[in-house]
Amino acid sequence: MKSITPATYIINSHGHFFAVSSEIELQRLEGCRILSSKEEMYSLIIDEQCLDADEVIEEEIILTVDDGVWVSINGNTGINVCKLNPGEQMASFISRFVL
Length: 99
Prior knowledge:
Strand order of the largest sheet: 3-1-2-4-5-6
Distance between the termini: 35 Å
Order of helices and strands: EEEHHEEEH
Helix content: 25-40%
Number of strands: 6
């Protein structure tokens, strides 16, 4: 049985927000804010980006590892394999992520 890793909540410098449910090297994040709870992250996003709660839920990016591959899940795009550059760590991907 897989164990569930508590999520880490992160907002990057481009305003994208993530719930990461796998291990990540937090010290490698650049220009990101780490929040203590989903509620804190949602509250900040609602205030800073003038979104309502439903929009925040749709835009949240959930990152996890499935069979050794990082995948992202969100309300708009569904499930996708994260396209990491060779040798890139997930912390770098989060830090530079922009649409």
